[in-house]
TrEMBL record:
The lineage of its organism: Eukaryota, Viridiplantae, Streptophyta, Embryophyta, Tracheophyta. Keywords: Signal. PROSITE patterns: SUBTILASE. The keyword Signal applies. This is Peptidase S8/S53 domain-containing protein.
């Protein structure tokens, strides 16, 4: 609880959602890899893309692979949610400037919110990838 607010159990809002994960970055993270993951998710017919890859500062939209991939997803009715960047708390530190992306801020807290994934065969594991699509 945060000052007595948000007591109870935290869990996902759509328990019947199917999740597809795409491994995008290894030791390096190229623009081609990011755009290929967007293409795969779009081709798979996902409803939402959430990508936790970001920059330290904004770049021109014609060079921002997340903005470009997100634009193609938006044209197909797919919402793209991504990290606004964690360069704050100084003013103007967001790295997300594309108006078609839903940008989400992040911070560090002293809690851990875990979500388990249960497969059809009963196997349970925790997903920890850079790119998720629902």
């Amino acid at each position: 609880s945060f000052y007595g607010v948000a007591r109870g159990i935290a869990r996902g809002g759509v328990p019947w959602a199917r999740i597809a994960t795409y491994s995008v970055c290894g030791l390096t993270c190229s623009s081609a890899d990011v755009l290929a993951a967007f293409d795969d998710a779009i081709a798979d017919g996902v409803d939402v893309i959430t990508i936790s890859i970001g920059r330290r500062s904004a770049v021109d939209l014609d060079r921002d692979t997340i903005a470009i991939g997100g634009f193609h997803a938006t044209k197909r009715g797919i919402l793209t949610v991504h990290s606004a960047g964690n360069g704050g708390p100084d003013p103007a530190t967001t790295a997300s400037v594309a108006p078609w992306l839903l940008s989400v801020a992040a911070s560090t807290i002293d809690r851990k919110f875990e979500s388990k994934v249960v497969l059809g065969n009963g196997k349970i594991f925790t997903v920890n990838k850079h790119f998720f699509a629902v």
